[in-house]
């Protein structure tokens, strides 16, 4: 009959903390990398695409015709003589 191994009585918490701290660090780095690549970089690419195709003058004319501005009358209302 073989004897059972003796349980670890000293340093048990310390050994578990080392293991779980390492696991936590790895998961935190993986989570941060995932957020950066899948959310921030995707969002930056969307903004870059929007501003690459954005025409300020065309947007101004659209808002002008809708009557958004108080200081600029729409061309249809002013007769186009501006």
Automatic annotation (TrEMBL):
<comment type="pathway">
    <text>Energy metabolism; oxidative phosphorylation.</text>
</comment>
<keyword id="KW-1133">Transmembrane helix</keyword>
<keyword id="KW-0496">Mitochondrion</keyword>
<dbReference type="InterPro" id="IPR034884">
    <property type="entry name" value="Cytochrome_c_oxidase_VIc/VIIs"/>
</dbReference>
<dbReference type="InterPro" id="IPR037169">
    <property type="entry name" value="Cytochrome_c_oxidase_VIc_sf"/>
</dbReference>
<dbReference type="GO" id="GO:0005743">
    <property type="term" value="C:mitochondrial inner membrane"/>
</dbReference>
<keyword id="KW-0472">Membrane</keyword>
<keyword id="KW-0999">Mitochondrion inner membrane</keyword>
<keyword id="KW-0812">Transmembrane</keyword>
<protein>
    <submittedName>
        <fullName>Cytochrome c oxidase subunit 6C-like</fullName>
    </submittedName>
</protein>
<dbReference type="Pfam" id="PF02937">
    <property type="entry name" value="COX6C"/>
</dbReference>
<comment type="similarity">
    <text>Belongs to the cytochrome c oxidase subunit 6c family.</text>
</comment>
<feature type="transmembrane region" description="Helical">
    <location>
        <begin position="20"/>
        <end position="39"/>
    </location>
</feature>
<dbReference type="InterPro" id="IPR051389">
    <property type="entry name" value="Cytochrome_c_oxidase_VIc"/>
</dbReference>
